[in-house]
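Quality-control log, excerpt.
Job 1 of 2 completed; input and output follow.
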Amino acid sequence: MTKKITLVCNQGLSTSMVVKKMQESAKIKGVDVYIEAVPESDLKKTSKDTHVILLGPQISYKLNRFKELYQPQGIKVEVISGADYGMINGEKILQDALSLMEG
């Protein structure tokens, strides 16, 4: 079964670069995962089959609200490390997301 990771930010622009790096890393590692970036306004439409929601650092202040909304549905919610996001470290962000699914 393909796992789904959704990255959420204000507009989805810089986050799309992170998604591309995460997808490249997943392909190299042979990980069956679907990764997408969506603006916060579109999340309700795409969250139904998501396993992990990762918030961009620019909206980290919304973490508690997202946890209240989505964790009761069994969706893990966390903020992407500012350093990893800034360096577009897709491999590390992917590993963090996969660890959340296991935990």
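Job 2 of 2 completed; input and output follow.
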Amino acid sequence: MNDLPPDLPRLRTLETWLSLALDDVRRAIAAAERRQAERQRGIEARLAPPEWLLEVGLNRDSPPVQVHVGGCWNSGKRHRGVSRDEALRALADGVKACGACRPDTELGFLEG
């Protein structure tokens, strides 16, 4: 590097400044690694999505509206996870199967 000062006092000052800057960078790296580890722990601790969803009506007393495969884009905001047996029971009771994800096909449900 040609642009370094020639005298010792300025070289020592530059060394000190670079050392402090390096400490700042190392602290920033450690903080980023902690955030990344926390994010990873959050991902690992996340519950698996339910396999089947039951879309419910506008109020808690209304009957279910549709059965969906878990993660269906068409499930709406008012749904709850159900077991395979509950999804089959709902279809057997006449709850409509979602036309987008076709849970009746996934479940092997045949009407009649």
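Post-run check on job 2. Residues 52-107 form one domain.
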